[in-house]
Here is the input.
Amino acid sequence: MGIYTLRINGKTHQIEGEPNDSLLSVLRYELDLIGSKFGCGEGACGACTVLVDNQATRSCVTRLAAVDGKSIMTIEGLGGNQLHPVQQAFLDAEAFQCGYCTPGMVMATVSLLRTNPTPSEADIARIMDRNVCRCGTYPRIVRAVKMAADRMRNTESAEVRR
Amino acid sequence: MNRPGDIEVERYELSEVAPYRFEVERREFMRIFGVMGAGVLVLASVPASAQESGRTGQQSASTDVSAWVHIDERGHVTGYTGKTEIGQNIRTSLAQAIADELRVPLDRVSLVMADTDLVPFDQGTFGSQSTPRMAPQLARAAAAAREMLLDRAATQWNVDRATLSVKDGQIVGQRQSAGLGEITKGQKLVGVVPVGVSGSPVAQWVSRGTAEKKVAGADFVTGRHRFTPDITRPGMLYGAILRPVGYTGTLASMDDSAARAIKGVTVVRDGTFAGVVAPTERLARRAAAAIKTDWRVPTDLPSSQTVYEHLKKTGTTSGGGRGGTPTIAGDVSAARAAAARTFDASYRIPYIAHVPLEPRSAVAEWSDGKLTVWTGTQRPFGVRTELAEAFRIPETQVRVIVPDTGSAYGGKHTGEFAVEAARLAKAAGKPVKLVWTRAEEFSFGYFRPAGVIDVKTAVDGNGRMTAWEFDNWNSGSSAIQTPYEVPNRRIQFHQSDSPLRQGSYRGLAATANHYVREMHMDAIARALNVDAVEFRLKHLKDERMRNVLTAAAQRIGWPKASAANRALGIACGTEKGSYIATAAELSRADKGFKIERLVVTFECGAIVNPDGLKNQIEGSVVQGLGGALFEAIEFAGGKLANGSMAQYRVPRFKDVPAIDVVLLDRRDLPSAGAGETPIVCVAPAIGSAARSFGTVATELPVKLV
Here is the structure.
């Protein structure tokens, strides 16, 4: 057992655990941050996607020891009082059915738009390919990502003009 | 090997008629008033015998469909239904039916779903029945409530009832108005829907027919919604089950001394069941891993290579159980003897997995001998029975609550994970959460049945089919009847001994039966050198089928592909009362082909929520791409060879071509279910197009050989 310092959604947490404990299990079971979902435990479906130092990361295969001192953002840390533009776009495009993959998809999109604010459909398919929507709403998710990208760009340029 | 309790082929068709269905007891609806407060509660029920079928080639489901609607004093409306929300969006579409009948905005309506203590009995959520069967009951209850309240308002105000109307949640008269709920004046009124009362005609729909957004959609994009794996209870512990290495085995012995030495761990062994409970999920996994187990594993099990022979060898011949009796018309032998040409083929359908992203899971809590279980299942009342039987307690002592669930696709009909969690909770004396691992999901859930389908056809000198013989071993009987006009037919389903556990799946065997039927139609058309659409139309009388087929052909530009080195394929069909045609355009790629685009034309009667419907169709088609292009369970020696997400490929972003969905709205026809049917023609549309590039294997997934 060891003590690990994690900065999660802007708050510092001291977590006692084994180095090989998964970040996902800490988030879900220690901190009741249940927005990150358990889908496969193999890092193959993306339902557990969170941002670690701004990088989309599969928290189910991320060891606790590997995130010591790092900054983590989960779906709960997104948006504040109102929905983040990516969340709003998923809602507007109705880019979900059962919604189980949605938090992971939203986090993967946030990460994608940070590195590529103007992704093409091919870019989206390539980067998001690690996230599974078993309900098959991929065409809608692509639409939501593009919608969010457009809105975020417009907001930014409006801010620049101001 | 053929464990009777484990065979789950197309379960709802097996359902027996519930022997008795008593009137709703007074205390049952008094409980509703207890929760919801005074107001009006209306009960609607239709016995199975009185239900319109609206289906073709389907046995009708065999139980009553019941729903309740409650309006509280403030005018908030609550619908009660045993249906479950698993991503098909009925929490929204069913509320739309209620909102329309009460003339209230959608945000005034909520649904209590799938809580066995609070909702009327329901057989389960499968077979695309929520829209054609449950929505009309909720509409009837809401319509009757509206009429009751109008009657009361007329009496209270001493006015002619004909001068009153309902608008935006208000009863409006010439001089006065009042909210719907206010009319009840704190009383508890109960109504039962009289025979003959039905919901409004389609022409009066307001919310229905429009693309209302998913109710509580914000809870999903924020991650706030609690699926079963997210439920916590005070003092809750975590469970893990001991399993054999492969998909089968019986526990022979175990050494649990190392696990028992871990603080806080309880080991439970009861007959062949063994599991552990621990204060944390990680500790439960560690404790389970620390237990040494020996399993008796059967030998000589079929593999994914030899399974087809096995299915054919063990199949029933005639009369032996469900589907064993062949459908016979005319004389196929005489027709074959007189035929100009005959066409015979045999196809193989592998097992495939549902892979719902929310794993099978349950939270179980015992309190004063009463058991409450939160679990993701399509059959809350069925799971209640499973639990009552497992623990030998009355069903009244069991409550099953189904949170809106992370999908199912037919894979969550059973409740073994609920039984397991409840057994562990009983031993621990505390609530227990059990979430299956992905490996458990693959090995201990169930699959869409594998099958062998033989088809034999005779054609006369005019290119008209005269005989159609169709034998399906094990994959199931859904949509086994051909929609094509052929005078002499012999069609038979043979139930076989399945080495893997099998059960329901989106569209059931309709996918396998359509694949073979449509691929065979295509093969005959090619051999006769006639157009595949013309050949079908020549044998089709059903106008609805002809319409979807011609619409799809037109949309994709049939018969010419849009560029050189491209090819078109098409397929059509009907299932669950709705009609589908799918057309595919393929291009040549390295060793195989690439799907350039799909056109889907769909007709399911009057459309309730066009955007929700499109979402279901796209999703169904994407799921169909998996079975068409790469999904197949591989197994040998009692173990799965690809039982993980990394090894078992499901459709991802890059696999999805442009999908052009065309909805044919038939407001003159009753709404049929729509979540399943669009899956059935994906594989044959692609497979028939691929034939333009070479020989296509007779085993799914579609590949060039």
